[in-house]
Structure formats: structure tokens, C-alpha cells
Amino acid sequence: MPASKILMITGDFTEDYETMVPFQALLACGYTVDAVCPGKKAGETVATAIHDFEGDQTYSEKRGHNFALNATFDSVRSENYDALVIPGGRAPEYLRLNADVIKSVRHFFDAGKPVAAICHGAQLLAAAGVLKGRTCSAYPACRPEVELAGGIYADISITDAVSDGNLVTAPAWPAHPSWLRQFMAVLDASSIPETNAA
To answer: Any idea where the DJ-1/PfpI domain is (predicted)?
Structure first.
């Protein structure tokens, strides 16, 4: 049976697709996903931003949907979750300033639980100090943060993802099929009980 309870840490101006798509896809596959935001309660919403690639030097940004949170950040305990999802967008740049968010991210790495981060989600990983020696993809503008945190930046196609043990990362939402497929494979592998050799 796969690991079933997943925590998603998000915030205002999280990337629309990078929040909505994994949240709904994981629910559709039978996982329980609790989406939380510091300072907000279940039933409240975060504003999302739509980042698109329209031929400019960087992505464009437009206002997206309101994403409804289904759990309260102050009430959840990381130890009660099997895995963590960190969407990108603008939220990670300020969420990384929250000591409780950093503590939560570190818990998943210390416990060896599956973690999926996409795009600017790597900013949270870098701030939590969990990237040393780890291969990590991210939006290309986050490459310096990955490398300054001791990570190995995976310079891959925008439609690809990379796994390094329990960590699955990707550059941006066009990688969703690969990113989610790899994450679910890690989730399934993490739930296989160890057997003792006779």
C-alpha cells in the first residue's frame, strides 16, 4: 500500500498550475493531501499566480485562481505525514523566512520521507539547508541558490524531472507528467516494508 498522507506547503502567489495540478492529481490517485499556508486556516484561500513562457527574457506573471486550503498550518504536525510537496511561484521566497516552515521541511529530510519540489520550491530547500550533495532541478534563475546551498543543479529540459533518493524536483509546470510520475514511484517505494534476510 502506498504512502498515503501528503503535506503541501503553499502561500499567496504560489504558481497556479504547480499548486492545483499536483493537488488534484494526487487526490485522484487516492492520496490524502493537506494543503496549508502559514497564517491561514482551512477554508481560507491563497491567491495564485500564472507564470507563462511567452518569449520574453523571463516568465510573465498574471493573477490566477483562488486556491482553497483544506488544513490549518498551525494544527498540522509534520511527523503525521508520509511526504511533502512544495509548489513554486512567488510563495517560496517569503515562506523560507518562516522558521516553522523551515523546521517542517527539515523534518521530511531528516526522516528520509519523499519530497517533491518544483520551480522556485528549491528556494525553500536551499533555505532549509537540505541540498548539500543532492541533485536538484529548479527554475533556472534558482540555480545559484541551489549551488550556494551545496546542491548539484540538474540542468534538464523544462519537461523533465530528476530524482535523487527521496527528493524529486523539476524546473517548472511543463514537467508535471514526469515530476508526478517520479514522485509517485518514490512514494510507492517508500511504503514497501523492509524484509529481513533469513
So the answer is: 5-184
